[in-house]
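pipeline/complex-builder :: batch 7 item 3
reading input block
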Amino acid sequence: MGDVVDPAFIQDAEHRPKLSITEDDGIPSFDLSPVDDPGSSEYLLLVTRIGKACKEWGFFQVINHGVPAEKRARLDGAARRFFEQSLEEKRKVGRDEKNILGYYDSEHTKNVRDWKEVFDVTAQEPTFAPASHHPDDWEVVQWNNRWPEYPPELREACEEYLLEMEKLARKLLELIAHSLGLLKDRFKGFFEEQMSFLRLNHYPPCPVPHLALGVGRHKDSGALTILAQDDVGGLEVKRKTDGEWVFVRPTPNALIINVGDIIQVWSNERYESVEHRVMLNSERDRYSIPFFYNPSHRVMVEPFPELVNDREPPKYRAYNWGKFVASKKRSNLMKLDVENIQIHHFKVEDHEKKQ
Ligand SMILES: O=C(O)CCC(=O)C(=O)O
Ligand SMILES: [Fe+2]
């Protein structure tokens, strides 16, 4: 990315990272092996702990999650080989307005450019999505994956890893449903015709890690994210108790889970989607692979009636997931100088609530 740093990458002073890192015990960590034995006391304990972590942190880490290490290693290797190529090669599978998937290197978060390059792969081929953000336009388009010639194993590595991610996401949502007192399969129907996707992230070394970020502070807008990070580290989570940015120490083969905005709305804010960001460093390349578990574009996202009552009326109005994504993509692509669409735009204000 050159020696002279493009000002587009520079964060406002208040959002710049502190390079000395804050570590407390960090986000909670769980062994997921009891998941295959529902009804056992270990399973119930896990449900309680996951509920607590979702409430207190919005983030947790899991080990013994059932995703085979060799599948992760294979994808990691393929991702590194893909990003090693020249920009010209990578741009052959570059994203544009029509083709939303594939490679790009100029994402902005809150209008500051992220120091990273990515390759996006959809979980369901094809993925159906609204053609536009216009509320009256119900035309649906298809998103298809773009596969580069090199490395040839990338496609299969993504496809087999995606199946593992879906399996794990379903299990995690069952645990989360239990923890909210909902039926185990309460979330399931929303993910038929899902809009989930896998993102391969590469953060090159940065000459100004004190001024720029790999990903600026943000919340994930989908339901659930499952993140694999390498051993370099850089992810920071905003601690709910005091707003401090807390470093997420890399743990070999662990996966990091966070609840997204959709779970915040579904749960009527019992659980909150938490801000996070990615710090850079001047020496090492960092790679990470988030899987974003997203429902069908048809889904109207709103608080579950089971979690709403007279004392806790719905905190959000229903919104359509597909249109939400379409509005977000539009403002990202056009770099509109307005705030991106956010769930708080659907928030029921206090004065609108029934007394
Ligand atoms: O790379 C990471 O550790 C996190 C990336 C992330 O938060 C995102 O892509 O939404
Ligand atoms: Fe994120």
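note: The domain at 59-354 is CATH 2.60.120.330 (Jelly Rolls).
queue -> next item
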